[in-house]
Amino acid sequence: MSIGEWLLLxxxxxxxxxxxxxxxxxxxxxxxxxxxxxxxxxxxATTTLAALTPGNLAAIPEFWPEVQAQKHRYxxxxxxxxxxxxxxxxxxxxxxxxxxxxxxPWLILAATGFFAISPWVRKWAETSAPSLTDxxxxxxxxxxxxxxLTYFGSGVGNIMLAMFTIRGFGDFLSANAAKNVxxxxxxxxAAIAYTAAGYIAWLPAIPIVIGSALGARFGSRVxxxxxxxxxxxxxxxxxxxxxxxQFTR
Length: 249
Fold this sequence. Notes:
The chain is an all-alpha fold and 249 residues long. The protein has one domain. Helix content is 84%, strand content 0%. The protein has helices spanning 3-22, 27-36, 41-51, 53-59, 64-69, 74-132, 136-151, 156-169, 172-196, 202-218, 220-223, 228-248. The longest helix has 59 residues, at 74-132.
C-alpha cells in the first residue's frame, strides 16, 4: 500500500468519524476510498464493516447509564439483531462475489434512500411508537435491517436509531445507546465471519480505524458547527454519485 493510498484511507476514515459523531453514513466515504485502492466491492464492503467497528464499540461506555435504564429491553431486541445478522452473513456467503458486485449499486442507492428518509422515519416513529413498541411489525423490521447491517451495512445507522425509537426505547439518548450496541454486535459478527472467510483486507483497514477514531474524538466540534441539513444533503449527493459510479464501472 502506497503512502498516497494510506493518506486517502486515513482521510476517508477521518470524514467517517466526524460524520458518524453527529449523524450517520460514514461508510459512504470509506467504501469508495477502499475501491480506489484496488479492492473488490466485496472486500471493500466487508473491510468497511470491520474498520468502523471500534467507533461503535467506543461509544457504548458513553451511553452506559441509558443502557442500564433500558436493560430489560435488550435481551429480546439484541437477540433479533443477532438472528438477522447471522442471516445477513449467510446470505453474503450464499450470493458470493459476483452477485454481490451486481447488487452493490442498488445497495448504495438503498442506503442513500434509507439515510435520506431517516428524519421522517424517526419523526413517524416518535408518534407511532405506542402501537409498534411490542408489535411483530417492529420486530420484523429490526430483523430485516439487521440482515442488511451484516450484508452491506451502509446507511443503516439512522434507520436503526429510528427503529429503536419505535421499539419503545424512548428518548434520543436511550435509542442511540441501543443503536450503538446493535451496530457493535452486527459489525463484530461480520468482522469475525468475514475474516475467517478471507474477505477482509486488514492492512487497508488500519488507517481507516485510526482516522475514524480521531474524527469521532476531535472532529465532532467542527462538524457540530456545520448545519445538519447541509451535511445531510452533501452525504446524499455523494451517495448518489458513488452509486452512479458503480453502475458505470
